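Milestone 3.1: sequence recovery, worked example.
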C-alpha cells in the first residue's frame, strides 16, 4: 500500500467517524437519556405537569457533572415517585459520605444484574449513565421493559467512590485505588461492594469506567474486557465474552460509536494488534473478582480525551459523547440479560456448585491470553488452610464478606477454611503462601 493510499484511507476514516459522531450527538443533545429496551425516556402516563427528575448533568446539557447533593436529591425523588425503586445506604466512606445501593424491579424468579459506577472518582461518565438508567427503568411504561423488570433485579451502586468523585481523584479519600481492593477489602468502598455480591449473588456484574488515550492506536469511544482470570468457570467466561462481543460493543457500534478490547492497541486501518498494554488476570480487580465469584463480569471504558476538534472546542460535547457511549453500551448489556437469562443462569448456577466437588487446579497467576507458569498453578491443592487464633481474629470479617465458609476449632483456637466450597479458588487466592494478593498466609492442610 502506498503512502498516498494510506493517507487517503486515514482521511476518509476520519471524515466518516466525524460525520457519524456528529449525527449521533446532534440526535441526543436535547434528551440526554437513551431509551432502554425501546422504552420512552419519559413515562407515557406521567402527568404533563410533573416532569421526571433530572440530574445536574442533564439540566446543564452536559456542561458539568452531577454534584453529590444533586445525586442525593435525584435518587430520593426517583424513589418517592416509583414503587419499583428502593434506595438504601450500604456503607459510609472514610470522609463520611454514604455509599448507596439502588434496587430496581425484581421478582421471586428474577435474574440479578449489578452495576458498579465510578469506582475511580475521576471517571464520572458511568455514574451519569447509571443515574439516568435508574430513573428511566423506574418510570418506563412499555410492556417490554415491564416484562424485563418483572424477571430482572437491577442493582446499582451509582457512586462507588464518593470521596474520590467529590475530589475528582482516581483513588478514594485515603488515596487507595478501590478497583484494586476486591480481595484485601481494606476500604469501606470495597467492603460494601463485597457484601452486596455475597448477599445478592448477581449473575452479571457490569463495571463502568473511563480511560485516558495514550496512543493513536488506542482512540476508541468504548473499550470492553471480560474476566481474564483463569479461575473463572469456562461457561461463565464464555457468557462474559458474549456480553462484550455480541451485545455491548455491537450496541455501541449501532449508536455510531467505535469500540475495541481494553488493553490492546490496534491499527485503525488493518485492525491488527500493535501492542498489549493491559488485560491481566489480577484477582483483586473487580472484573476478575466477578468471574472468580461466578458472575458474568465486564469492564467498560469510555475515552476521556476529546476525539474531534468540536469536542476540543466544547467540553460539554465531549462529556455528552462519553455519557452517551456508556448509555448505548449499557443498553446492549440490558438486552444481554433479557435475551440470555437462561444460559446466564445455567452458567452461574453450575459454576457455584463446581467447588463442592473439590477437584482440579487453582491458578495463582496467568490469564486467558497469558498461560500460567508452572509455579503459578496449584495442581494438587490442599484440603484447606488452618488459621491460628490471631489470624482468624484479624481476618474473620474479610472471609465473611467474601462469603467464605469457615469451621471454628472446637477449643476456639483459630479456624479451618476448607477448599470444598463454592468459593474454592478464592480460598487459595486469599490464604495460599504463593498467592500474590493473599490477605494472610494460612497453613496448608493436606490430610483430608
Amino acid at each position: 500500500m502506498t503512502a498516498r493510499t494510506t493517507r487517503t484511507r486515514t482521511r476518509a476514516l476520519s471524515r466518516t467517524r466525524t460525520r457519524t459522531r456528529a449525527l449521533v450527538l446532534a440526535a441526543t443533545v436535547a434528551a440526554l437519556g437513551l431509551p432502554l429496551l425501546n422504552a420512552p425516556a419519559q413515562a407515557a402516563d406521567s402527568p404533563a405537569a410533573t416532569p421526571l427528575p433530572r440530574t445536574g448533568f442533564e439540566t446543564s446539557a452536559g456542561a458539568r457533572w452531577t454534584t453529590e447533593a444533586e445525586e442525593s436529591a435525584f435518587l430520593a425523588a426517583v424513589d418517592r415517585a416509583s414503587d419499583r425503586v428502593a434506595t438504601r445506604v450500604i456503607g459510609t466512606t472514610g470522609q463520611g459520605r454514604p455509599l448507596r445501593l439502588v434496587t430496581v424491579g425484581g421478582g421471586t424468579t428474577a435474574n440479578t444484574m449489578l452495576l458498579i459506577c465510578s469506582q475511580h472518582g475521576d471517571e464520572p461518565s458511568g455514574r451519569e449513565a447509571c443515574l439516568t438508567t435508574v430513573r428511566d427503568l423506574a418510570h418506563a411504561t412499555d410492556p417490554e421493559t415491564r416484562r424485563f423488570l418483572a424477571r430482572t433485579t437491577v442493582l446499582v451502586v451509582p457512586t462507588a467512590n464518593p470521596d474520590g468523585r467529590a475530589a475528582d481523584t482516581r483513588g478514594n479519600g485515603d488515596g487507595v485505588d478501590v478497583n484494586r481492593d476486591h480481595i484485601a477489602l481494606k476500604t469501606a468502598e470495597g467492603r460494601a461492594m463485597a457484601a452486596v455480591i455475597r448477599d445478592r449473588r448477581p449473575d452479571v456484574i457490569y463495571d463502568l469506567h473511563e480511560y485516558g488515550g495514550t496512543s493513536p492506536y488506542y482512540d476508541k469511544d468504548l473499550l470492553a474486557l471480560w474476566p481474564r482470570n483463569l479461575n473463572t468457570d469456562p461457561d461463565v467466561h464464555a457468557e462474559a465474552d458474549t456480553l462484550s462481543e455480541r451485545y455491548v460493543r455491537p450496541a455501541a457500534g449501532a449508536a455510531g460509536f467505535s469500540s475495541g478490547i481494553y488493553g490492546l492497541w490496534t491499527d485503525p486501518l488493518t485492525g491488527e494488534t500493535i501492542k498489549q498494554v493491559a488485560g491481566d488476570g489480577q484477582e483483586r480487580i473487580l472484573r476478575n473478582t466477578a468471574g472468580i465469584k461466578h458472575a458474568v463480569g465486564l469492564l467498560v471504558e469510555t475515552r476521556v480525551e476529546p476525539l474531534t476538534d468540536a469536542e476540543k472546542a466544547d467540553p460539554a460535547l465531549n462529556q455528552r459523547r462519553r455519557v452517551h457511549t456508556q448509555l448505548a453500551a449499557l443498553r446492549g448489556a440490558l438486552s444481554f440479560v433479557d435475551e440470555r437469562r437462561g444460559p446466564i443462569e445455567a452458567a452461574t448456577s453450575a459454576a457455584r456448585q463446581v467447588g463442592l466437588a473439590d477437584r482440579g487446579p487453582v491458578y495463582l497467576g496467568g490469564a486467558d491470553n497469558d498461560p500460567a507458569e508452572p509455579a503459578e498453578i496449584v495442581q494438587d491443592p490442599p484440603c484447606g488452610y488452618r488459621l491460628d487464633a490471631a489470624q482468624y481474629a484479624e481476618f474473620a470479617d474479610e472471609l465473611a464478606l467474601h462469603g467464605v465458609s469457615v469451621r471454628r476449632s472446637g477449643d476456639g483456637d483459630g479456624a479451618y477454611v476448607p477448599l470444598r466450597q463454592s468459593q474454592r479458588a478464592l480460598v487459595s487466592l486469599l490464604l495460599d503462601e504463593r498467592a500474590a494478593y493473599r490477605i494472610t498466609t494460612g497453613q496448608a492442610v493436606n490430610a483430608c
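Residues 1-49 have pLDDT under 50 and may be disordered. The radius of gyration is 22 Å.
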